[in-house]
Design goal:
The complex is a heterodimer. Chain A is an all-alpha fold. Helices cover about 65% and strands about 0% of the residues of chain A. The longest helix of chain A has 25 residues. The radius of gyration of chain A is 19 Å and the shape is globular. By secondary structure, chain B is mainly α. Classes of the chains: A mainly alpha, B mainly alpha. The interface between A and B is large, with 96 and 79 residues.
């Protein structure tokens, strides 16, 4: 049982992601989580402002169900499949994060320096999360997919556009990690 | 992280290859054939980089956002709302952006 309660190694989680993708494809769907953001906008009435949101969102109900499953999966993982042990981050990553001002990296899923409500209710903390979310939502639709649609499904399908997008993901990620985060924190 | 994404894509390539090789039909009776992405460079590199900036700042992409919400991190709702706003603004500007 202990093995199940500790963080699962990469050679278990990686293949599980591939199985998720293959299962969705087998059922005639695709693996693309960011499409849900467009669907949610349409449900909220965004079709009044841009044609991009005028589509039959009801045909996307299956994907909202996947979204619901992701929430439930996160709940189960933490409530029933976790013994509270730290994430197995490399020592150099923990040192780097400590230098940026993040203590106890790996002890929680996300740093309380960013995600605790105490921090969010400050102007800086609020701005960080809003800007981060905005960039994710804008960039993913501009690129036509996110990690699931491009990096997992697109690359598995050997699509050049997805490779270009994934290169972009890492350009942005590396710029943020190495140049911008040290300026922000 | 590279192990996770590497093993996911490696196995993913194998799965899709098997689907195509043996002409596996989906449960809806159609032959499995993922629609190819439209050919372009600009939208993928620009959109991808913008996404990457937010990805590294938020520490979550559009799937894990919901998973982390499920683990009890309620502040993720703010990030999800901001991501919807980002998608909405993209929808408004879509015709003016280079693709």
């Amino acid at each position: 049982m202990d093995v199940i309660l500790q963080p699962w190694p990469w050679f278990v989680s990686g293949p599980l992601i591939a199985i998720t993708m293959a299962t969705l494809v087998f059922f005639g769907k695709t693996f693309g989580m960011s499409s849900n953001l467009r669907t949610l906008c349409s449900i909220g009435g965004a079709g009044k402002y841009a044609d991009f949101f005028k589509f039959d969102w009801k045909a996307q109900k299956w994907n909202l169900t996947v979204l619901l499953g992701a929430i439930i999966g996160g709940f189960i993982a933490v409530q029933f499949l976790s013994d509270g042990s730290s994430i197995d981050l490399s020592t150099s990553t923990i040192t780097d994060l400590k230098n940026l001002g993040f203590d106890n990296a790996g002890a929680t899923l996300l740093p309380s320096e960013i995600y605790s409500w105490d921090n969010i209710l400050t102007l800086k903390g609020f701005s960080i999360l809003v800007i981060a979310g905005f960039l994710v939502g804008f960039g993913t639709r501009y690129a036509g997919g996110c990690t699931s649609g491009h990096a997992i499904t697109g690359l598995s399908n050997l699509q050049l556009p997805s490779l270009i997008a994934v290169v972009g993901f890492f350009i942005g990620g590396l710029i943020m990690t190495h140049f911008l985060l040290p300026l922000i924190f | 992280m590279y192990g996770i994404i590497g093993s996911a894509v490696g196995l993913g390539i194998l799965f899709l290859w098997v689907f195509k090789k043996f002409k596996v039909k989906s449960t809806e009776g159609k032959e499995i054939n993922l629609p190819p992405k439209e050919k372009s460079f600009t939208r993928y590199i620009l959109g991808g980089t913008i996404f990457g900036l937010g990805w590294a700042l938020a520490g979550a992409c559009p799937g894990p956002m919901y998973i982390l919400l499920g683990t009890g991190i309620s502040s993720m709702l703010l990030v999800i709302a901001a991501a919807m706003l980002g998608t909405f603004v993209y929808g408004l500007l879509k015709n003016k952006l280079p693709h």
